[in-house]
């Protein structure tokens, strides 16, 4: 939480110093509460910024209110980019250079945010030459250009002679002037700044296209993956507009390679507590890079370590602090030696004065001795002996002081040797940095080869898309044939319904004929009874053919045999037409 507070304070410092003193507190506080999702407290705001001598620009200051009512309530559930953009809006118009720059306002905003990340934790904010070199190298590598160390060393010498570092606006002018990006167009510089912004500010550790297997339909879809310190997000494309899902990473996750299967190559598996994700990279190199990047991220989560770029920034700061402490210690020792040397010089001067005074006293006593030689012969002998003893003690003291002076000079010589060794160590470090630059150039060449391979893979992907489109066309043709057959089937069903209706009508006609036959049979029986009664003779004549009766689905003798054959031919013809 302390680190988050320091990051917020840097952006807030820019916004506060850019506003007018009489209205900076209220305007800035209201905007901060909005973007940081902190509840507004209008009572505390009016109480703190009342119109008297205790306002935010007095001895009470703005920091107590900012810490108590805003920063201590921040939970981290806010959009950092939106927060930085609000602070940028308040300070950019006043401080941004009016000279035309080779970068857009959006790129200048991203450079400003990166400055707040890399600047020192002291105010007014500056970025030291070591961090300027680190940032310019990152941008140059992202552009695919070579780093001009001699040019920066010359610039660094010029910078060190005038100041300790650059402000945010001077850094924007330096990058926007194109001094270290000559020969590059605006789009290339913009893409390089965006790539560095994604890595340092948005914590993007790796990103790229890969295939992902679905959990429900089990189909493979191409997605744009973005790896961050504790999550992998995947989108439809690299514009990040249509997000499809997240893979939450923790210390329990693991990643492992899979053998090629089902026509998919370069497979690997990400295992989490609740889900498992199968992913296919474009080639073996990309597969190994993604496995290594994800495993490194999981290891950092297990160890509780920060992302690599934040850890590297902390190490650079600690190294600068260590060198500064060593330099201060060396200066302190030199001052102590200088003070000791001055004290020794004073002691030697005191001894010399004592010797001169002793010599003066001896001359005076010698003169007195000559005057009173006869009278004080015995006394002179005693004084002479005493004087010899004093001289001997003085000589011993001088010898002792000379020995101490030699020891002091020896210590000065040892410190000079230590200083030479320190210079040699600095030269070794410079050589190591040059070796590191050589390795980075080699990495840049490898990235160029990788870009060529990526272009070839994109060409193969386009051919595959064309093949898929041809397959889709064939599938559409089969779908059209299926629709035609379904229509024919519907026609046949309609004909069948029509025949069913005709069968019902024929059955009704059969029932009517049957009733008529029964009526006729009754009439015939009545007639035969009358004939038998009157003539005594019964002669029965029955209608109909002697052939066997036809039985159909509509009842007996519903159709004649000829009609039935005609209907069968009609049905067969309609069936052949529908097929």
UniProtKB/TrEMBL annotation:
Major location (coarse): membrane
Keywords (A to Z) from UniProt: Cell membrane, Cell projection, Coiled coil, Cytoplasm, DNA-binding, Membrane, Nucleus, Phosphoprotein
Native source species: Sapayoa aenigma
Domain PH: 203-299
GO cellular component, one term: cytoplasm
PANTHER family documented for this protein: SWAP-70 RECOMBINASE, SWITCH-ASSOCIATED PROTEIN 70
Name of the protein described by the UniProt record: Switch-associated protein 70
Function: Phosphatidylinositol 3,4,5-trisphosphate-dependent guanine nucleotide exchange factor (GEF) which, independently of RAS, transduces signals from tyrosine kinase receptors to RAC. It also mediates signaling of membrane ruffling. Regulates the actin cytoskeleton as an effector or adapter protein in response to agonist stimulated phosphatidylinositol (3,4)-bisphosphate production and cell protrusion.
Annotated coiled-coil segments of the chain: 309-530
Quaternary assembly: The SWAP complex consists of NPM1, NCL, PARP1 and SWAP70.
GO molecular function annotation: DNA binding
């Amino acid at each position: 939480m302390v680190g988050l507070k320091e990051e917020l304070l840097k952006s807030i410092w820019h916004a506060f110093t850019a506003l007018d003193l009489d209205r900076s507190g209220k305007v800035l506080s209201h905007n901060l509460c909005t973007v940081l999702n902190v509840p507004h407290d209008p009572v505390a705001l009016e109480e703190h910024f009342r119109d008297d001598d205790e306002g935010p620009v007095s001895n009470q200051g703005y920091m107590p209110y900012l810490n108590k009512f805003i920063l201590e309530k921040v939970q981290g559930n806010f959009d950092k980019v939106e927060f930085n953009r609000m602070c940028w809006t308040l300070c950019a118009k006043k401080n941004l250079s009016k000279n035309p720059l080779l970068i857009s306002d959006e790129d200048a905003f991203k450079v400003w945010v990166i400055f707040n990340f890399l600047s020192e934790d002291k105010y007014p904010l500056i970025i030291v030459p070591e961090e300027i070199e680190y940032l310019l190298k990152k941008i140059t590598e992202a552009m695919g250009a070579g780093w001009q160390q001699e040019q920066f060393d010359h610039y660094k010498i010029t910078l060190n002679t005038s100041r300790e570092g650059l402000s945010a606006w001077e850094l924007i002018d330096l990058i926007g002037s194109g001094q270290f990006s000559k020969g590059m167009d605006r789009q290339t510089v913009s893409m390089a700044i965006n790539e560095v912004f994604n890595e340092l500010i948005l914590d993007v550790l790796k990103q790229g296209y890969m295939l992902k297997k679905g959990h429900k339909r089990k189909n493979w879809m191409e997605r744009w993956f973005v790896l961050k310190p504790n999550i992998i997000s995947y989108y439809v494309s690299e514009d990040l507009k249509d997000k499809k899902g997240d893979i939450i990473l923790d210390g329990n996750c693991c990643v492992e390679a899979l053998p090629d299967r089902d026509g998919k190559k370069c497979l690997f598996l990400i295992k989490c507590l609740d889900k498992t994700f199968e992913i296919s990279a474009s080639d073996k190199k990309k597969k190994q890079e993604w496995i290594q990047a994800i495993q490194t991220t999981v290891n950092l989560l297990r160890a509780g370590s920060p992302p690599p770029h934040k850890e590297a920034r902390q190490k650079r700061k600690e190294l600068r602090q260590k060198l500064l402490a060593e330099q201060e210690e060396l200066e302190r020792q030199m001052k102590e030696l200088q003070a000791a040397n001055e004290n020794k010089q004073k002691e030697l001067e005191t001894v010399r004065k004592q010797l001169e005074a002793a010599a003066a006293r001896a001359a005076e006593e010698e003169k007195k001795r000559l005057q009173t030689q006869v009278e004080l012969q015995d006394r002179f002998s005693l004084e002479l002996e005493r004087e010899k003893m004093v001289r001997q003690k003085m000589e011993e003291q001088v010898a002792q002081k000379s020995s101490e002076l030699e020891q002091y000079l020896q210590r000065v010589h040892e410190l000079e040797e230590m200083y030479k060794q320190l210079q040699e160590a600095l030269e070794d470090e410079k050589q190591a940095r040059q070796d590191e630059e050589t390795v980075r150039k080699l990495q840049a060449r490898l990235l160029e080869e990788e870009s060529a391979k990526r272009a070839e893979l994109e060409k193969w992907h386009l051919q595959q898309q064309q093949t898929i489109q041809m397959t889709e066309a064939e599938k559409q043709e089969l779908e059209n044939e299926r629709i035609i057959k379904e229509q024919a089937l519907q026609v046949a069903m309609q004909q069948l319904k029509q025949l069913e209706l005709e069968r019902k009508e024929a059955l009704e006609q059969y029932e009517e004929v049957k009733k008529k036959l029964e009526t006729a049979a009754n009439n015939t029986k009545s007639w035969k009874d009358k004939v038998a009664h009157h003539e005594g003779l019964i002669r029965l004549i029955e209608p109909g053919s002697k052939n066997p009766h036809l039985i159909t689905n509509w009842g007996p003798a519903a159709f004649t045999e000829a009609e039935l054959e005609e209907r069968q031919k009609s049905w067969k013809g309609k069936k052949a037409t529908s097929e």
